[in-house]
């Protein structure tokens, strides 16, 4: 029991560091999570710890590393609760998007969708799939944006944003920033500019580090228009977030 509690705590600390962009510290705490999970002999917690490691590899852009870790988590999938299987499959989809494999992205997200209704465990960790509206479509839209499928990603983000409750301000901001980035990737800078206005307001209001990172990604995607009017407008809109960063 002590090891299970310790692993859950280490996973939370690891996520907080990852959310803040400190991947070195995140890797340390993800490693601590995995060590305690293995020592606990709990197969569900071990699978969860492997997905945690895969999340860091995703942020590092290591698609093949993500796939290896998620495949290891799913080795005994018949003995895992549906929640852990969903987590592993959606994270493996992110890995596939990093290697340009849309077919695998869709296969994994579709398979995970078939398990959502079976999530009924009382484990205290990894409950995003239960509490986040459109959880798997968020993952699909993120993968599509990474793959460069701007139109499909934009349509999915519109669908997801319609379901986000008004109380989930940070999530809404992140989704808007990703939608704007997808528009920029689709060579629609004016659309990206219009979308990002709301995201910046949320970033200023919440001080979300995660949202600021998404806005930095958008800024990079908009570099082709840096010297154009739309680029100057973007710099002005982002100024409350970027100044002093």
Characterize the structure shown:
With 245 residues, the chain is mostly helical. It has two domains: 1-131, Serine Threonine Protein Phosphatase 5, Tetratricopeptide repeat, CATH 1.25.40.10; 134-245, Serine Threonine Protein Phosphatase 5, Tetratricopeptide repeat (Alpha Horseshoe), CATH 1.25.40.10. The chain is 76% helix and 0% strand. The chain has helices spanning 2-19, 23-40, 43-59, 63-73, 82-98, 102-113, 128-131, 135-147, 150-163, 169-185, 189-206, 209-221, 229-242. α1 (2-19) runs parallel beside α3 (43-59), α8 runs antiparallel to α9 (150-163) and α11 runs parallel beside α13.
How is the secondary structure organized here?
Elements: H1 2-19, H2 23-40, H3 43-59, H4 63-73, H5 82-98, H6 102-113, H7 128-131, H8 135-147, H9 150-163, H10 169-185, H11 189-206, H12 209-221, H13 229-242
In short:
The protein is an all-alpha fold and about 240 residues long. It is about 75% helix and about 0% strand.
Describe this protein with a few key phrases.
245 residues, 76% helix, Serine Threonine Protein Phosphatase 5, Tetratricopeptide repeat, mainly alpha
Anisotropy-based shape? globular
What fraction of residues sit in β-strands?
under 5%
Stretches where pLDDT is under 50 for at least 5 consecutive residues are none
Given helix and strand content, the structural type is mainly alpha
Number of strands: 0
């Amino acid at each position: 029991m002590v090891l299970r509690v310790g692993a859950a705590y280490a996973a939370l600390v690891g996520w907080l560091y990852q959310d803040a962009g400190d991947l070195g510290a995140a890797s340390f705490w993800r490693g601590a999570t995995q060590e305690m999970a293995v020592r606990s002999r709990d197969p569900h917690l071990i699978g969860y710890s492997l997905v945690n490691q895969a999340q860091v590899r995703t942020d590092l852009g290591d698609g093949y590393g993500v796939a290896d870790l998620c495949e290891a988590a799913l080795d005994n999938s018949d003995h895992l609760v549906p929640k852990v299987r969903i987590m592993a499959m959606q994270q493996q989809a992110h890995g596939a998007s990093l290697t340009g494999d849309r077919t695998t992205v869709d296969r994994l997200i579709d398979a995970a969708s078939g398990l959502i209704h079976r999530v009924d465990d009382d484990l205290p960790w990894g409950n995003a799939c239960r509490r986040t509206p459109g959880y798997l479509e968020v993952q699909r839209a993120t993968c599509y944006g990474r793959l460069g499928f701007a139109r499909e990603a934009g349509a999915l983000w519109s669908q997801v944003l319609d379901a986000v409750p008004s109380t989930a301000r940070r999530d809404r901001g992140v989704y808007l920033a990703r939608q704007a980035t997808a528009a920029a990737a689709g060579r629609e800078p004016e659309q990206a500019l219009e979308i990002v206005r709301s995201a910046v307001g949320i970033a200023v209001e919440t001080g979300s580090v995660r949202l600021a990172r998404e806005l930095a990604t958008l800024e990079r995607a908009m570099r082709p228009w840096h010297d154009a009017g739309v680029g100057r407008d973007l710099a002005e809109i982002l100024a409350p977030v970027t100044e002093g960063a």
